[in-house]
Specification:
By secondary structure, this protein is α+β, with helices and mostly antiparallel strands. The protein is 44% helix and 18% strand. It is built from 16 helices and 15 strands. Strand 5 and strand 6 form a beta hairpin. Helix 3 crosses helix 4, helix 11 packs across helix 13 and helix 11 runs parallel beside helix 14. The longest helix has 26 residues. It is elongated.
Length: 500
């Protein structure tokens, strides 16, 4: 846009802001601008999470007062406003039929043939949709920022910025935002008892089912998000252009794209970080069971004039998972420990990493199993995968190997041997159909221990085993085999010491 047109847009926005009203579902009452501003700020702060979207849709309408507001046919703004005309004139090159095609893409790197695009979101926008987004930016960021955003959208290369890959970390609670890597962070969602803007907005929504909101609030508040920055851009497509496809090379585009250095260069790396490594490392460090679910993409609000997304609703079914499950707290020191373990896991060769998957996953699963029987079976599978690489089960063999490997001296090994013997005796009863009594005790060294505490003790031994074997694999380059275990129990203490 020319400087004159920018000044004209600035003046039009200034006039519109003076007459703007916010309606909910075309109802007579309206929400004060300052309240709606805080609502938007809150929603953008939490990467598109809409605090009000539990059991109904929140449809707000931005209307310029005095311009046919009695009509029931308008969508967001009356189409005869000067602002609508201005937008349609400036975006003339991008019209296709009765709408403007838009697209958003991340720029992925780390490939042999150069960087390429990955599709994130596209849609057809009416001019009043674009105007609503422009006005929302003006409300939150100011008119100057809204003009800059619109000017950028008129360029062939569109609006560059960062997308956020947003995932839910189930069962994890953090008190403050914690950085994992540059551009990779854990973000706490606010607890219900400190959230004020939500209840403030509710006061202006006639017929809002506040009782439903209170009942369902625990599905959202207090949870933790994993947020990963990904470079990308948002663009208006010209009518002759095909929508870019995933895999389109950046070098083949008709415009330059700024490529930014980020921790994870593409979605494959992001998925590996989440699925194969970090969730496991964090679970082991915190002695819990975390699961990470991708729930959406978010684009910086002033880099996106698409009102159709991306945004995340708290009605997302994944937010219902583990609704009444207790959470485990983590702080920066534990995140740093998880990073160290994550680095160890990523440095393992593929064969070794694959062999560790069964014991790691079963150890973690034992934390969320619903019954003592399931926990015992999960742990037995984990121990056998760690200590019995040879074919054929041997309770005696496993107990001796684990006791030698984990014990510090003869007394310690004797106690560990008893624990594993009692554990496998208990496991045999479970697989033959016996359900453990909640009041039942396991006697170790003459001391009765409740089943629940005994299982916790065994879980800790499993975790210790995994940590030691990871160190062994990094040093030796391979998983402990049958020969290693045989030499260990025959007295090769030098081999044992080097992995402590």
């Amino acid at each position: 846009m020319t400087d004159e047109r920018k000044q004209e847009l600035k003046q039009l926005l200034h006039e519109a802001m003076g007459k703007l009203i916010i309606l909910y579902e075309h109802r007579p009452s309206h929400i004060p601008i300052d309240v709606y501003k805080r609502y938007l700020q809150e929603r953008w702060k939490y990467y598109g999470m809409d605090f009000l979207s539990f059991s109904f849709m929140t449809n707000f309408w931005l209307v310029i007062e005095g311009e046919n507001t009695e009509s029931k046919s308008f969508d967001l703004l009356n189409e005869n406003t000067k602002l609508i005309n201005f937008i349609e004139e400036e975006l003339t090159p991008f019209w296709h039929g009765d709408s403007i095609q838009t697209g958003s893409y991340t720029v992925e790197s780390g490939f042999p043939h150069g960087s390429h695009l990955a599709y994130t979101q596209s849609g057809s926008n009416q001019s009043h949709h674009i105007l609503q987004r422009l006005l929302e930016i003006a409300i939150v960021r100011g008119i100057e920022e809204a003009v800059l955003a619109f000017d950028g959208s008129c360029r062939p290369e569109g609006l560059p910025g960062f997308f956020q890959y947003v995932a839910l970390v189930e069962r994890l609670k953090v008190e403050t935002e914690l950085q994992i890597y540059e551009g990779v962070r854990l973000v706490p969602l606010p607890p219900l008892n400190t959230e004020k803007i939500t209840s403030e907005v509710i006061r202006y929504l006639p017929g809002f089912p506040s009782h439903a909101f209170i009942r369902q609030a625990d599905t959202f508040f207090g949870k933790t998000l994993l947020v990963i920055d990904c470079p990308g851009f948002s663009i208006f497509h010209k009518p002759p252009e095909r929508l870019f496809e995933s895999g389109t090379r950046v070098a083949d585009l008709s415009f330059d794209v700024e490529e930014r250095d980020v921790k994870f260069q593409n979605r494959k790396e992001i998925n590996a970080f989440i699925k194969d490594f970090f969730s496991q490392a964090l679970s082991l460090v915190c002695n819990s069971a975390f699961e990470i679910y991708h729930i959406g993409w978010f684009l910086e609000e002033d880099k996106n004039l698409h009102t159709q997304g991306p945004t995340i609703s708290t009605r997302h079914p994944l937010l219902e998972r583990g609704r009444f499950v207790s959470s485990t707290k983590a702080d920066q020191s534990e995140i740093d420990q998880a990073k160290c373990l994550y680095n160890r896991l990523t440095n393992l060769n593929n064969g070794t990493f694959e062999k560790l998957q069964i014991p790691i996953n079963r150890c973690i699963k034992s934390k969320i199993s619903q019954t003592s029987e399931d926990k015992i079976i999960d742990l037995a599978i984990a121990f056998e995968a760690l200590y019995l690489p040879d074919i054929g089960e041997s309770t005696f063999k496993l107990g001796v190997r684990a006791s030698w490997y984990l014990g510090n001296d003869k007394k310690d090994r004797e106690e560990l041997r008893e624990i594993f013997t009692k554990f496998y005796g208990f496991r045999s009863k479970v697989v033959h159909g016996r359900k453990p009594n909640g009041e039942e005790n396991i006697t170790i060294k003459g001391e009765p221990i409740p089943v629940s505490k005994f299982i916790t003790r065994v879980q800790n031994l499993c975790l210790k085993s995994i940590e030691k074997i990871i160190k062994h694999c990094l040093k030796e380059g391979k998983f402990p085999d049958n020969d290693y275990w045989n030499s260990l129990i025959l007295g090769d203490t030098d081999s044992l010491k080097c992995h402590r």
